[in-house]
């Protein structure tokens, strides 16, 4: 009988050890899920923190018929930019698009400091007409008629103070498009 008792004790000890391993494994999986959840929350917090100032940079097209009539001359493309964040943004590109005219233009601004009021930037640094132009946009002399400035699609690209590159499309959707963007230092003026 003692052999049977020893066997029963050995089987019970093995079952108890197996149950302990199972419970430990389940506890480990619970800890791993908790760590993964915490990592997800931390990543979401970091993304929200990264987006905070970028969310406060916006633009809209303006024309001679709007508030900025004194600044924008007739026929000049322009946009109002507002940086309501706490830090400047750098290497801003305002991309104007007039799809029916197959026209795109870019205005570059080195730095946009935080401000209570928007700043208006008129004109552009480069332009391009590429693709088919809608018939009603072609003038009798063959030139292309652009939409009024206020009807243009406006997209922004800029770098925040932490070196992250952002893009806000013409519908206002903000996306991070790069990180740790190296910036050349601003030129120093000689007196």
Care to describe what's here?
The chain is α+β, with helices and mostly antiparallel strands and 191 residues long. It contains 1 helix and 9 strands; from the N terminus they run αβββββββββ. The protein has a 6-stranded antiparallel sheet with strand order 6-4-3-7-8-9, with no helix packed on it. Strands 1-2-5 form a 3-stranded antiparallel sheet, with no helix packed on it. The model has no long low-confidence stretch (mean pLDDT 82). It comes from Dactylosporangium maewongense. This is Secreted protein.
- Strand-and-helix sequence, N→C? HEEEEEEEEE
What value does the average pLDDT take? 82
**Biggest pleated sheet:** 6 strands, antiparallel
Number of strands: 9
User: What spatial order of strands do you see in the largest sheet?
Assistant: 6-4-3-7-8-9
Which percent band covers the strand fraction?
25-35%
- End-to-end separation: 105 Å
Question: What is the alpha-carbon Rg in Å?
Answer: 30 Å
- The level of helicity is 25-40%
> Helix segment count?
1
Overall morphology = elongated
Q: Return the CATH architecture of the largest domain.
A: Sandwich
Q: Give the uncertain stretches in residue-range form.
A: none
**CATH class division of the largest domain:** Mainly Beta
């Amino acid at each position: 009988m003692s052999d049977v008792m020893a066997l029963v004790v050995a089987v019970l000890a093995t079952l108890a050890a197996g149950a302990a391993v199972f419970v430990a494994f389940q506890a480990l999986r619970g800890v791993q899920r908790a760590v993964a959840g915490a990592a997800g929350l931390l990543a979401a917090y970091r993304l929200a923190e990264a987006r905070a100032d970028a969310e406060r940079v916006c633009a809209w097209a303006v024309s001679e018929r709007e508030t900025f009539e004194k600044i924008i001359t007739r026929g000049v493309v322009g946009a109002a930019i507002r940086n309501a964040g706490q830090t400047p943004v750098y290497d801003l590109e305002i991309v104007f698009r007039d799809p029916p005219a197959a026209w795109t233009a870019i205005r570059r601004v080195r730095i946009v400091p935080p401000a209570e009021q928007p700043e208006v930037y008129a004109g552009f640094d480069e332009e391009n007409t590429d693709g088919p132009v809608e018939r009603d946009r072609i003038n009798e002399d063959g030139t292309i008629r652009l939409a009024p400035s206020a009807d243009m699609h406006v997209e922004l690209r800029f770098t925040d103070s932490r070196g992250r590159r952002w893009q806000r499309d013409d519908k206002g959707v903000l996306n991070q498009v790069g990180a740790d963007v190296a910036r050349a230092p601003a030129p120093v003026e000689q007196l």
